[in-house]
Amino acid sequence: MRERGGTPWPMSLVDPPCPPPPASVAAGHAAFTFIGHSTFLIRLDDGTTILTDPIFSERCSPLRWAGPKRARPPAIALEDLPRIDVVLVSHGHYDHLDLPSLRALHARWRPRVVTGLGHAALMARHGIPDAVELDWGGQAELPGGHRVTYLPMRHFSARWIHDRSKALWGGFAVEPASGGRLAFLGDTAAGGHLDVIGRAMGGFGAALIPIGAYEPFWFMQAVHMTPEQALEAQLQLRAKTAVAMHFGTFKLTQEAIDEPGRRLMAARNGQDFRLPDFGGSITLPL
């Protein structure tokens, strides 16, 4: 608060339209469509669809009239999504666990929701029953015979001032039935935990890694990564390809709206770390 809000963001952005998400992908591949912030539509090679940390609301806040507001709309409207089979919710912060979006998804398709310990009761109170809770290292079977593992991250979870770290936070490793592996990190700071995960899991074909909300660094480094740290995270995870997320949607910290992407591109130095278009799809081998 003392350092103020940093670089102002545009009030409203409209991105060029992109082709719709692929209806199918080749064997051993997955398609990743960037909807905004940490929300990706992932289509596996058997047609199973996964939605990560879905937020389609105007604000990520406990208040409808205050708090971080979208700088750009979701690249795909909720009503335009294909059928969703699985929803992965990494932790309880409002920009990742959005109850209105989860209610709408449940009402339409009743997808299997997988999250960390302590979130299922909250979801059930708000009309999203039967969420599967996992401890770090815990696993769950997904529709289609796929498997998901909940991964430890360096972050925290809270919905208000009295519940900090009363529920768990983490990321996910998804292992499709046909083979391969992908990672969705949710939110995390840099640290040796990522190297442990990379070694323990045997690497990843693709990893969704956050690159934004890091300024002022002296304060935010405990919970988020810079673009340069995200590049190091890709190496630690042993991910063949990384895809950036957690940028350009909600102004959570001080950096300019386009700074994370610019810094990532400037620092890549040959690494296969993609900066997705909003609404764009990237198909990758796993």
Summed up, what is this model?
The chain is α/β, with parallel strands linked by helices. Helices cover 17% and strands 24% of the residues.
Rounded mean pLDDT score: 96
The biggest beta sheet, please? 7 strands, mixed
Element-by-element helix/strand order: EEEEHEHEEEEEHEHHEHEE
The class by helix and strand makeup works out as alpha/beta
As a whole number of angstroms, the C-alpha radius of gyration is 17 Å
What count of domains describes the coordinates?
1
CATH topology: Metallo-beta-lactamase, Chain A
Number of helices: 6
CATH class: Alpha Beta
Give the terminus-to-terminus CA distance. Answer: 43 Å
Strand content: 15-25%
**CATH-scheme architecture:** 4-Layer Sandwich
What is the topology, as strand order, of the major beta sheet?
6-5-4-3-2-1-14
- Overall, the morphology is globular
The total of beta strands comes to: 14
List unreliable stretches of 5+ residues. none
Helical amount: 10-25%
Going by CATH, the homologous superfamily would be: Ribonuclease Z/Hydroxyacylglutathione hydrolase-like
Protein name: MBL fold metallo-hydrolase
Organism: Roseococcus pinisoli
Pfam families: Lactamase_B_2 (PF12706)
Domain Metallo-beta-lactamase: 48-247
Notable traits:
alpha/beta; globular; 6 helices; Metallo-beta-lactamase, Chain A; 286 residues; 7-stranded mixed sheet; 24% strand
